[in-house]
Amino acid sequence: MHSIDFFVRIQGTLACFTRPEFSTERVSYDLITPSAARGVLEAVLWKPAIRWEVRQIALLKPVSYARFKRNEVNTRLSTQNALAEARGSKPMPDFFADEDRAQRNTVALRNVDYGIVTRFHMTPRAGAADNVRKFEEMFERRLQKGQQHYQPCLGCREFPAFVEPWDGTGALENESRMLGWMLHDIAFGTLRGKEIANQPRFFPAELRRGIVDVPAWEDATPANPEALRV
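-> structure tokens emitted (230 positions)
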């Protein structure tokens, strides 16, 4: 069971939807990915009872790039250390960013403007009092009023997104090209052998007359990003 289609406009001055094959030096996809769009929608409305599905992405402004360097750290937070600290079994080791800093290039997007066609599905976690119309009205009200659970972002926390209703017009019809393999979304908690891992899924993205049609989650391809390197 799913909702009606919603038309949502997402804008921002900077965005970076990092391609996994360039994870050391950040290089953005040309367009927002379905997973990033889902994150923006969840900032407006997230409930355990619903799951967002992005169906189309429309390009409303030409793609424009911005290149700059940023200070980042080389080391990621250890999940095992964090879990040990949370359980009280072992304190987190000290970390000093000044001793682990590196300058990295970023190829980001400038002045982005997208139209998103989306809907949600009810999940097995829906309760007896939950129904589609209830959440449709909730989302419409929150979108109109600009209400959000947290500040939505465009790929990185420092790139805020601005969200509003979209009238479904303005796609750049002169923009058509292949975009290559694009991240669809991530299956969190997938079992890999006896271990729990996150599994990315990809799809061959094509921009046709300013619109990318996003396949259903079931039709996306589970893949190792290394295998998609061209």
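DSSP finds three helices and ten strands in the chain.
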